[in-house]
Amino acid sequence: MKYPIITDGQWVQPIRRGYKMACCDCNLVHRINFRIHKGKIQLQAFRDIRATSAKRRKRKRKNKK
How far, in Å, CA of 21 to CA of 63, rounded? Predict the structure, then answer.
C-alpha cells in the first residue's frame, strides 16, 4: 500500500473509518477512525502491526539497493 506524503502542518481530509497513516521516520503505521460525538471531533488510533511490518520490509529492501 502506498501512503501519501504529507508535510508538517499540512491539513489532510481523511476517510471516516480505517484511515491509515505512516510515520516517515520509523514507518510505524496507525489505523485511525474518526467520529463526531456531541458536536466534537474524536479520533481513535490503533497500531497496524501487519502494515508496519510490510512497510518496514519494503524500506529495508529499498535501502539495500
Answer: 21
Please state, in angstroms and rounded to a whole number, the distance separating the CA atoms of residues 28 and 14. Answer: 18
pTM over 0.85: no
Q: 44: left (phi > 0), else alpha (psi -120 to 50), else beta? A: beta
Instruction: Return the pLDDT at 62.
Output: 75
Of 48, 12, 43, nearest to 29 (Cα)?
48
Q: What is the 3-state secondary structure (H, E, C) of 1-65?
A: CCCCCCCCCCCCCCCCCCEEEECCCCCCEEEEEEEEECCEEEEEEEECHHHHHHHHHHHHHHHHC
Query: Which of 13-17, 30-34, 44-48 is the least confident region?
Result: 13-17
